Hints:
By secondary structure, this protein is of the alpha/beta class. The protein has seven helices and seven strands; from the N terminus they run βαβαβαβαβααββα. The longest helix has 12 residues, at 11-22.
Amino acid sequence: MGTIIACDDDDSILELLHECLSNFGHTVIKAHDVSQLWTLLRDMKPDLLIIDMQMPGGGGPGAMNNLRAIGASNQAVIVYSGMPADKQLVWAHDRGLTKARFIQKPFDLFEFTRIVHELCPPPPPEAAAASAVSETRLRACSRCGAPFECADAGVACLCPNCLR
């Protein structure tokens, strides 16, 4: 089970990320700005950071520069922005950030979830079921429509086959 910090100044996006990723067994901690992100990072080392590129207080660029400054340039990070992903990638490469992934807004939630699971794999279904705090019920996969058991579903509830 991965621990993910999601940092965005837009509460609706934070809630979307929390609901979607929590359904896969991840622990998602919300940070509403870069200073809150740094407070969290002083006390913990998450498996993944998800950061909006443009926020008050520095956003993605400030966070990425600080990660490099504290010697954490190999931290798994997803940065999203309206800027084309190829330009974001060049920007990170120039700063020596090795495990940064970029996605352009508006992003496809299925593609975003695929990238998250590539960097921070979800727990096996048995472990996710054991740690679920909400009632498990039969749901339809948001992508293929196949029925499967899922904890309280968020915006995108994907079956195991669609996650591969």
